[in-house]
Structures are given as C-alpha cells and as structure tokens.
Design brief:
This protein is α/β, with parallel strands linked by helices. It has helices at 21-33, 49-54, 74-84, 95-110, 112-120, 132-135, 146-169, 187-201, 217-235, 246-255, and strands at residues 12-16, 37-41, 63-66, 69-72, 241-243, 278-283, 292-300, 303-309, 316-321, 326-330. It binds glutathione. The site of glutathione has 12 residues, from helix 1 and helix 3.
Length: 338
C-alpha cells in the first residue's frame, strides 16, 4: 500500500479493519479486479468517529463510499462494484451459474451458524481486548468472554467440519480448480471461500484430526489457489491501494458529488412507503439499535437509499443498504418531503 494524500482513486473509499472477514470479501474482490481505491482503517470496536462525521449510524464494517454515495454491507458493495466496473467483472451471466453464486452468497452470509461458528473459533487471544465483551453484546447470542468462547468451541468445530466436508465432497470432489469449473477464479469462489479462508488464515483453533489439510485436501488446495490468485493480482499491477486517514477520507467524501442517480421508490413495494418519507434503515439480525435515518429516495427489491445528514449537519449523504437482512421502517409522525 502507498500513502499519498491524493484523492481516492476512482473516488472509492473502503472503511474496514484487517481482521474483518466481511471486509476481506471486499478487499479481495478489489484486489482481484485490480480496481484502485483508498483504504481507511476503522477501529475494531466503537466508537468510530469517521462514521459519526459522515452521519452513518450503521455500526458494522465494511462500508464503501463512492463519492458521496455510501454503501453498507458487503453484498451490496460487491454488487455495486460489479455494476460500476462491468469490464472484467467476476460474476457470471449464465442463470445457472448465477444461481449457484447467489445461493452461496445467501448461505454463507444468511445462515446464522456460519458466522456464529467462525467468530466462535477466533483464537481467543485476539479477542482479549478490554471492553470487547461489552462492545459485541448480542452478537450471535453469545457472551464474548474468553471462557465462554473456549467453552463454545466444540460446537463450532462440529459445524465447521461439516462445512469443510460439504465443499470437499460435493463441488470440489471432481478435482476442479474453481467452484464453477471456470478457467479463472470467479465470484462464486469468493462467495464460497471467505469464511474458510479466514479461519485458515487466522490459525483458528481447529485440531488437525478434525479440520486440516489432511482431512480436507481439496478444500485446502482450493484456498491455496485462491491466495495465489490474490498474490498474482497484486504483483501484476501497480499499487492500487492508497491509505487515507479518517479526516482526509471523510472530507473527500463530504466534498464529493453523488455518483449514483437518485432512483425511484417502487410504488408496488410491499412496504407501501412513499418517496420523501422519513425512515429508519437498520440490520434485522444484530446491531439493529444502530439505525440510519433520513428521507427515502429510492426503494428497489434489494436496495434502499436514504438521504441522511452528515454528523455536523449541513451536508447530505446518500446511504444505500440491501433489503436482504435489513429493515426499513417509517419514523412515526414523519412528514413526507419529496
Ligand atoms: N452482512 C454484513 C455483515 C458485516 C459484519 O458483521 N461485519 C463485522 C466484522 S467482520 C462487524 O461489523 N462486526 C462489528 C463491528 O466491527 O463493529 C456484510 O456482509 O457486510
């Protein structure tokens, strides 16, 4: 990475931290695509002053800004990057392959035991940070103390062994290199591999007789190929990432133009919301107390966009969230302003 104070390449700023598995979905994607961007590292725990300055209440990472449009959730972020940089995109155009891609995305992100077992297998010393248990209250219905984590590990191992086995004995069983049997890695490989890659990379406490290269040689070889493809992508192009400190990143965003046109509110949407209504947008699984609020400007089957006020007020930012895994609710008594 290099650190010039220049404007973010492509107007893109990614906010995340190195340990974030969901953040890696996005950094891997950008690296594999060779899309240049600025990286603004966020603290592992709250508070996150950069988000407060932007007026973003959503408390998870990753968050990606393109100009003054701010996208939350790795699913919407990857989808948006595929749309904005279609040349050389990693997603398939074939319905059958898209189906597999999408199912993998849905399963790995939406099935609660995947995340629960991943974080339950984080090497406990990494979580030995004062205030961590309080910061993550409610996450995966677990108490985030070292003792509770160690006690929960066997159940997590039972689940993870099944997940590794699932890939070993189904899609990878015929010895193919990539999930869709493509010549090169595709989006389906990212959608399938990120939790497994994360556990292997973190040296999660998985005993070798339960989860290891010996038990699952095809999965481990696939993850190694994935890592080699990342290294190759990095080596084959000029530095693509600039690091930015919070103020430089947020000042840039707040001074930028919007990069996505407003969109429309689908009149047939089941929620029956109207453009201009003041709404709250928040995740439906965890951290749902952290709600973004603003004027509804677009509502599509899997994307909601609101106009929110920056932290100091005076500036409007557009916050985009997926509908899957998020709720959009009208703020009672709000007046409709179009
Ligand atoms: N569905 C979200 C999940 C994001 C998520 O849970 N991120 C974790 C980090 S890997 C997080 O933000 N944890 C709480 C925090 O860092 O405050 C996505 O795909 O981006």
């Amino acid at each position: 990475m290099e650190s010039p104070s220049a404007a973010p390449p492509n107007g893109i700023v990614l906010f995340t931290y190195p340990l974030s598995a969901f953040g890696r979905r996005v950094t891997y994607y950008l690296q594999l695509r060779g899309i240049a961007y600025a990286y603004c590292e966020q603290p592992f725990m709250l508070p996150r002053p950069d988000m407060a300055k932007l007026g973003v209440k959503y408390r998870k990472v990753p968050i990606l800004a393109i100009g003054r449009d701010i996208y939350v959730d790795s699913r919407l972020i990857l989808r948006t990057l595929e749309e904005k940089f279609p040349e050389g995109k990693l997603g398939s155009d074939k319905p059958e392959e898209k189906f597999i891609e999408k199912l993998l995305e849905k399963y790995m992100i939406e099935a609660p035991p995947v995340l629960g077992s991943m974080v339950g297998l984080v090497p406990p010393h990494l979580l030995d940070v004062p205030g961590f248990a309080e910061d993550r209250v409610g996450l995966c219905d677990t108490e985030w103390t070292q003792e509770a984590i160690i006690k929960g590990q066997p159940e997590c191992l039972v689940y993870m062994r099944r997940l590794f086995d699932f890939f070993e004995t189904t899609i990878l069983a015929d010895g193919r290199n990539w999930v869709l049997n493509t010549d090169k890695l595709s989006l389906a490989d990212i959608e399938a591999s990120w939790p497994l890659d994360w556990l292997i990379d973190l040296k999660a406490p998985m005993p070798p007789h339960i989860v290891s290269e010996k038990q699952f040689p095809k999965v481990y070889a696939w993850i190694s190929r994935f890592r080699a493809a990342l290294d190759e992508a990095q080596a084959s192009s000029a530095p693509k990432v600039v690091t930015l400190h919070g103020d430089a990143a947020t000042d840039f965003i707040l001074q930028s133009d919007f990069t996505q046109s407003g969109g429309t509110v689908d009149g047939g949407d089941p929620l029956g919301l109207k453009a201009g209504t003041e709404v709250e947008v928040y995740p439906s699984d965890w951290a749902s107390a952290h709600r973004d609020s603003g004027r509804l400007i677009a509502l599509a089957p899997d994307e909601v966009t609101i106009a929110a006020q920056s932290g100091g007020g005076g500036q409007e930012v557009h916050i985009h969230a997926p509908r899957t895994g998020f709720k959009v609710t009208e703020i009672a008594g709000s007046s409709t302003r179009v």
